[in-house]
Amino acid sequence: MKSATTEKVLRRDAAENRQRLLDAAAAVFSERGLEVGVDEIARRAGVGTGTLYRRFPTKEALISELVRQVFSDFVAAAHAAQTAPRGEGLEQLMYGVGTVQATNRGCLSRVWNDDETAAHKREFRTILGELLDKAKSHGRIRSDVGLTDIDVVFWAMRGVVETTRGITESGWRRALAIMIAGLRPGAEHLDATPVTEDEFDQVVARFQPPARNDPDSQSGGVS
User: In sequence order, what are the residues at sequence separation of 6 or more whose Cβ sits closer than 8 angstroms to the Cβ of residue 83?
Assistant: First the structure.
């Protein structure tokens, strides 16, 4: 019979292996995209493929957990931004989201359409709306900026992050600083209409990957 101490060590080792696999997957996917095989992820984590499959029965399960962690980080950044003074929380959050995106380049295409993160998405956008209202009330952001305008900024940042992968880590920061400058009060009138919530939903739906019916996508044999 296993002692309580032995079981505790085993649970700790399992948790550490799981996190090593997630860290390795984030790094490998960021470098080479989602097409990379799980064998490479296991090698990077320093564990066997059998260990990987015990933690994540399919490659899809591994990707889904990475996406969940990304949105969990988004929500954590949003909560931290709520304590910022003088309406500065929105900008703090925007830079926080950029940082999370930059360290999780490989799975960005899946962030907005994973069903497992629906609750995180709702919480994140609720806080985002509150921070936007505070930024407006403190005169940091122009009054005609809407929530979907900030969504578009996040999408634009994602594009810069993905485009500059492996070349520069500061490109998205410069782009975001320019976009925030354009959100300041006093800028000229905006003729273009904002993206509507319905259009936002349609864009998110467009990111949804096609259903995969091949057996490998549902089994440990995925590469």
Answer: 89
